[in-house]
Amino acid sequence: MLVRVPGDYDASKKYPVVFGFHGAGGPMEGYHRQLGELVKNHDYISVSPQGLSNAKRNRRGVTAWNGFSNHRFSSSDDVGFVVKTVEYLDRNASIDRTRLYATGGSSGAIFCFRLAMETDLFAAIAPMRGAMINRPPVPRERPKLSILLVCGTEDALFTGESKVPGEVFYPARKTMELWAANHGAKPEPTVMKKTGQITLTRYSPEKVGYELLLYAVNGSGHRLPRAQMSEAISYMARFFSRHSRPKTKTE
Question: Is 63 exposed, middle or buried (0-12, 13-18, 19+ CB in 10 A)?
Answer without folding.
Answer: buried
